[in-house]
Amino acid sequence: MKYTSASEFFKQRYGTKVYRLSLSSGCSCPNRDGTISTGGCTFCSEGGSGDFASKGDDIRKQIEDAKKKVDAKFPKNIGINERKYIAYFQSYSNTYGDADRLKKLYMDAFHEPGIVALSIGTRPDCFNDEIYEMISELVVQGDVYIELGLQTIHEKSAKAINRGYELSVFDKTYQRLKQIGAIVIVHVILGLPDETVDEMLETVDYLARLTPRLDGIKLQLLHVLKGTELGRRFMDNPFKVFTLEEYCYVVGECLKRLPKEIVIHRITGDGPKKLLIAPLWSADKKRVLNTMNQYIQKL
Ligand code: SF4
Q1: What is the pLDDT of residue 271?
Q2: Checking CA distances to 15, which of 37, 128, 187, 244 falls within 20 to 30 Å?
Q3: Architecture of the domain spanning 6-297
């Protein structure tokens, strides 16, 4: 079975290999600062689900530092001035803040050499008219990917993970973002302890049927991490996590349900190894991806 991976999609769209630079906007998250709750989503680590990001107030310096981390991955025949990157604001909620400050930050990032797109990770409840206006102005500069952390469509699971907003909020934000020309990617977690496989697939079915069509999806294996509520729960009373074989099956079923035009930005996850409690097999990312790709090819 063939699916469109992010690297293939980026290569087609930008004409070359593109790497993401993990950056920080300095935003917090309403699910951590007390606006919605202080505990955050039960799976979220201290780093706000972005433990690899460069940090600091100076975006130019952050970009320089982040480039150093990925430059070795470029093929040797791609010269320094030909390298293309996506400025990726991953941790916390990167539309949760003053729209003028964020507009300057994101415009500055767009104007740095080699940056072909912005990718902004956030929650669907962190939007207002000023933020939509800011995004409308950004999309004129180039591609703007907005990554929405949905995880599940099921309200009981959303409550169990302390997500803090309802599905209707996602629906409204999704429609507005598509209207203003953002490229929308949705994050789904596979393996939440209170969900059945059928429920996980219902989430994917829902996203597959969205109109206008969804642009991209990240299928993420649940990582149980130290320092999280889920980690504490697991240590007190270990719950069932997927084996690699089970995970391959579930991802395969997800891919069968998604139209080919939806770009698959991720089929597993990037949990920091030093924090990982379970499933431990996920630490060997190379083996995991090889096994998964072999499985998917045979479908
Ligand atoms: S919305 Fe994101 S940053 Fe905020 S608590 Fe949940 S996972 Fe963490």
Answers
A1: 75
A2: 187
A3: Alpha-Beta Barrel (3.20)
